[in-house]
Write a structure and sequence with these properties.
By secondary structure, the protein is an alpha/beta fold. It has 15 helices and 23 strands. The strands form four sheets. A ten-stranded mixed beta sheet has the order 8-7-9-6-12-13-14-15-16-17, with helices on both faces. A six-stranded mixed beta sheet has the order 18-19-23-20-21-22, with helices on both faces. A five-stranded parallel beta sheet has the order 3-2-1-4-5, with helices on both faces.
Length: 460
């Protein structure tokens, strides 16, 4: 089968491309924005890419395509999809294609939630791998233990990051309702994706649609301390449920799984050992508990899971150290929601006991661009010593939103000026934390180059 994938450079669609290639299909694709790590993965797979969404692809690279797999980045009015529809060519959403051609044959372990989906999915895949189960997976990032975001294996098990974003322009259900999981992780739930959801209640409804499709002998692993998830389950649940929480005094009494601040794990009152996290914020500990509980559902002993997590290396773009120049460390992180920003800063602070944190933020997500979360932005960045915000093409006043931070915060509309300002401010021992859900104009490399130039000039 020849698949032509529209929006192929998105993490999810690029993962489908990798899986389809592994399954023996011919894959081509197109997109408008290409940047690593997905562009690197596609090139390594030998997949032919077309820049843009021109209708001429139907008479070129996609002339013999059997089906067009459409990503949710594509909307009506897109010239290629209009031509596909006009000519009556077959098209399908990415989640539907994945379910029909891959997931129907698998025990699906799905990880859902506003935050931590990528890291928890990567942890779960790593635990299953260490247990010898060789899972397939599709993850919204690149786990360092695998160096690819998706793979297809002969294993009965498949780990998938279950996103609540809508499926396609012709299917406005959340993507995750297509996956039919037997094991479901519900990490947490907050308001996000303001471009498609009116309020938190609307997202809770989608999560309950997901709960409805877990089999009776399936298992839902849920964060016991999350009130939105409690409301979701209160609507009705027909599967086994296991709960996890921190080991704080106010931990939920029904939580079978708990983890202490020092990483000590307990299950049903039994000590399982400890997990040491380099950047051990609360969110990292809860992600680990969720992965352990999900792995137990497919037969991995909890003690074995704890040992496996000791060797977990993390995920690209999740507190990923991109370089160190003149004693200044530069990190890359995907955080773009205020809660994720705050927990990422906290995790870095816990892991690095000395030195300042210089937070560099690009408010790039659709929710951020709409200004829905702007009132929470200053509070989320309060744990940083300095804040640099890139506000090009932003439809609201970032300076006003960050005003509570006083002279700790700077806002720049020009990327070059932003880099220069950070390079002037940074000093030995600092940790520069760059946060964006996009490529951020290659700011990491630009910043490392500017720091190297400054160091060379000082030495000269």
């Amino acid at each position: 089968m020849h698949l032509h994938i529209l929006g192929i450079c998105g993490t999810f669609m690029g993962g489908i491309a990798a899986i389809a290639t592994r399954a023996g299909h011919v894959v081509t694709g197109c997109d408008a924005n290409v940047y690593p790590p997905m562009s690197t993965q596609l090139a390594a797979l030998g997949i032919e890419l077309v820049d843009g969404f021109g209708a001429t692809q139907l008479d070129g690279v996609a002339r013999d395509a059997d089906v067009f797999v459409v990503g949710n980045v594509v909307s009506r009015g897109n010239p290629l999809i209009e031509a596909i529809m006009e000519r009556g060519r077959p098209y399908v959403s990415g989640p539907q294609w994945l379910f029909e051609h891959v997931l129907t044959q698998k025990w699906v372990l799905a990880v859902a939630g506003t935050h931590g989906k990528t890291t928890t999915s990567a942890m779960l895949a790593h635990v299953l791998e260490q247990a010898g189960l060789e899972p397939g997976f599709l993850i919204g990032g690149v786990p360092l233990d695998f160096d690819v975001s998706a793979r297809l294996t002969d294993s009965a098990f498949f780990v998938i990051e279950a996103d609540e974003y809508d499926t396609a322009f012709f299917d406005k259900r959340s993507k995750f309702v297509h996956y039919r999981p037997r094991t479901l992780v519900l990490n947490n739930l907050e308001f996000d994706h303001a471009d498609i959801f009116g309020d938190l209640a609307a997202i809770e409804t989608q999560f309950h649609h997901l709960v409805r499709i877990v089999p009776g002998r399936g298992r839902i692993v849920v964060n016991a301390g999350d009130p939105a998830l409690a409301r979701v389950l209160a609507r009705g649940v027909w599967s086994e449920v296991e709960r996890f929480d921190t080991a704080a005094p106010n931990a939920h009494p029904s939580a079978e799984w708990t983890i202490a601040d020092d990483g000590r794990v307990m299950f049903d009152g039994r000590a399982l050992g400890g997990i040491d996290f380099p950047h051990g914020g609360r969110h990292s500990r809860l992600n680990a508990l969720a992965a352990l509980a999900a792995a137990r559902h497919v037969g991995v002993l909890p003690e074995e899971g704890v040992r496996a997590l000791a060797s977990f290396r993390g995920v690209k773009r999740r507190l990923e150290l991109r370089g160190r120049v003149d004693g200044i460390a530069v990190y890359d992180d995907f955080a773009h929601h205020p809660t994720a920003i705050a927990t990422t800063i906290d995790g870095l602070r816990r892991g690095e006991t000395s030195g300042r944190i210089l937070a560099v933020l690009e408010p790039r997500s659709n929710t951020m661009k709409l200004g829905t979360m702007k009132s929470a932005l200053a509070g989320s960045l309060a744990g940083a010593d300095r804040v640099f915000c890139y506000a090009a093409n932003l439809g609201w006043d970032a300076s006003a939103a960050l005003a509570p931070l006083g002279d700790r915060a700077q806002v720049h509309d020009d990327l070059g000026c932003l880099v220069d300002a950070i390079a002037r401010e940074a000093r030995e021992g600092d940790h520069v934390l760059v946060m964006s859900n996009g490529g951020f104009g290659g700011v990491h490399a630009k910043l490392l180059e500017a720091l190297a130039t400054r160091a060379a000039s000082a030495a000269g």
